[in-house]
Amino acid sequence: MSKILVIGDSCLDEYIYCTTGRFCPDAPVPILKPESFVSALGMAGNVVDNLKSLGCDGWLVSNANHIKKTRYVDSRTNHMFIRVDEGEDDVFPIAQKSLEDIKFDEFDAVVISDYCKGFIDEATIKYISEQHPVTFLDTKKALGDYADKIKFIKINDVEFKYNKDNIDKSWSKKMIITRGPRGAEYKGKVYPVKEVDVRDTSGAGDTFLAGLVFDYLKNKSIIKAIKFANKCATQVVQKKGTAKIDIDEI
């Protein structure tokens, strides 16, 4: 069983599933009737939960307070009417002493899941990458030399376009670009995914990252890991909410 440490911002994903049959008489909005409620850890917490679903020993170092994202969703169509976010301004950065207390050599890999909410900064990412040779990075920050010692960087196509001028050519061997319904790209080659009925993309990037790390530790091949991660992400986008990997289905 692989022991994997995940460091980054986490949140609580809440889904309030509703029915609606009429519009409000005093505003052009539907009247929602809540029927069911589901909650799960999101962001870095979702990465850990997916690693655990794959059978890993996942550990999380994250913000003490939980950012909360509440979504009001139509239970029939899965259409999201509104999302309400709370707590993003209350995230404190990880203390250097807490970082120094981590025994990085006890883990098979380290994952940095940085949603840029304030828990980790560039210096922290650089420090973590210097502590373990197998460190994966998923960040919303503009990329820079702080990522030089990262083993693999997972980035989506929007973030790649934003970072295009910042990316060092030497990073081609460690840059994995997720392309949504087109799959994932590595070293100029695209690894496709099968076409499916997408119900919800929430947390798909976290799922891809978890599958990538899990399979890389298992097979020591980033190509095989990308193909497996594609399968994981394809599975969860067919489900409602922040879904977790079902290893038996994979």
Describe, in plain words, how this protein is organized in 3D.
By secondary structure, this protein is an alpha/beta fold. The chain has a single domain (3-11, 42-66, 92-236), classed as 3-Layer(aba) Sandwich (UDP-N-acetylmuramoyl-L-alanine:D-glutamate ligase). The protein is 26% helix and 29% strand. It contains 6 helices and 12 strands. The protein has helices spanning 44-53, 96-101, 122-131, 157-163, 204-219, 222-236; strands spanning 3-8, 10-19, 33-43, 57-61, 67-74, 80-86, 109-114, 135-139, 152-156, 175-178, 184-186, 189-191. It has an 8-stranded mixed beta sheet, sandwiched between helices. It has a 4-stranded mixed beta sheet with strand order 3-2-5-6. Strand 10 and strand 11 (184-186) form a beta hairpin. Helix 1 (44-53) crosses helix 5 (204-219) and helix 5 (204-219) runs antiparallel to helix 6. The longest helix is centred in the C-terminal third of the chain and has 16 residues, at 204-219.
The 3D shape can be described as: globular
Strand residue percentage? 25-35%
The level of helicity is 25-40%
In total, how many domains does the architecture comprise?
1
Instruction: Just name the CATH architecture.
Output: 3-Layer(aba) Sandwich
Q: Give the N-to-C terminal Cα separation.
A: 18 Å
Number of helices: 6
Tell me about the largest β-sheet: 8 strands, mixed
Roughly how many Å is the radius of gyration?
Answer: 19 Å
Task: Assign the CATH class.
Answer: Alpha Beta
Structural class assignment: alpha/beta
Please report the total strand number as a whole number: 12
Please list the strands of the largest sheet in the order they lie side by side: 4-1-7-8-9-10-11-12
